[in-house]
Amino acid sequence: MNSRAEKLDAFGRLLDIMDTLRAECPWDKKQSLESLRHLTIEETYELADAIEENNLQEIKKELGDLMLHMVFYSKIGSEKGAFDVADVLNAVCDKLIRRHPHIYGDAEAATQEEVKANWEAIKLQEKGTQSVLQGVPRGLPALVKAIRIGDKARGAGFDWDQPQDVWGKIKEELSEFERAQELGNQQEIESELGDVLFSIVNFARLSNLDPELALERTNKKFIYRFTYMEKKALEQGKSLNEMTLSEMELLWNEAKAQSKD
User: Fold this and answer.
1) Could you give the angle at the alpha carbon of 228 between the alpha carbons of 226 and 230, nearest 5°?
2) Nearest-CA neighbor of 202 among 176, 169, 155?
3) Which residue of 41, 65, 180, 243 has the fewest C-beta atoms within 10 A of its own C-beta?
4) C-alpha span between 19 and 8 (Å, rounded)
């Protein structure tokens, strides 16, 4: 591993490169906070993919891309006279110290739950907000947002104690979903489906499962099996549209036997 001095040199090198690119590269000179936004989101998802695949070399690469973006935003901020990279790093250091009073102060927090509760209480004081849920970004994907809402509510003491405690709620919501289907009101069906999904997310959260990751793995599993079917159908001189459900089922089971899951 590199020494602390070498790490600081590497960070300084990145800052120097960004200064040069911002001054001399036509593409880099043109970028703004707004134009970088969607690229940053894309890079974040690429990092998430690398983590899901447990590919350490890809994780290193994607972390570098994200760090570049953070330096890029800081450079633009300095050009606007708003902040520079030192301001950004000092601000996050100050925040970490403030929100860990059990480390840097005289507060008590012996468990992870107590640490999270302290964090949320301090955050509310700092921001002057009335609700812990105001800390959940509006633009999060719905599934991720449901997890964060549950986490925030738990930090305020509003949560089930055990995963099995949620089962009753899941069954209740499923029953209401079935009744809505029987009545045929599309808006009500959608509403009850949302309640079912929200309850399942809470079960996953309390079980220390990541529903976003679980669903993504199922997506990848389906993609593998479906593309296997397409490939085998072509080898038979057919397309899936020309096959019966029974024929496709045979290929699906072949794909299932081939895959690890």
Assistant:
1) 75
2) 169
3) 41
4) 17
DSSP 199: H
pLDDT of residue 260: 64
**Backbone Cα Rg of the chain:** 25
Annotation: CATH topology of 4-80: Helix Hairpins (1.10.287)
Residue 107 amino acid letter: A
| Predicted structure pTM score | 0.70
The Cα–Cα gap between 204 and 167 comes to 11
Which tokens in the block code for residue 153?
A: 């509510």
Name the CATH architecture for the domain at 132-209. Answer: Orthogonal Bundle (1.10)
211, 200 Cβ separation under 8 angstroms: yes
Q: How many residues does the chain have?
A: 261
What integer pLDDT is reported at residue 175 of this predicted model? 95
Cα dist from 86 to 11, 29, 64, 75, 97, whole Å: 12, 21, 18, 10, 16
Residue 11 confidence (pLDDT): 93
Q: What is the mean pLDDT of each run of 10 residues along the chain (261 residues)?
A: 86 96 97 95 92 94 97 97 96 95 92 85 79 83 91 85 90 95 94 96 93 90 94 92 92 86 62
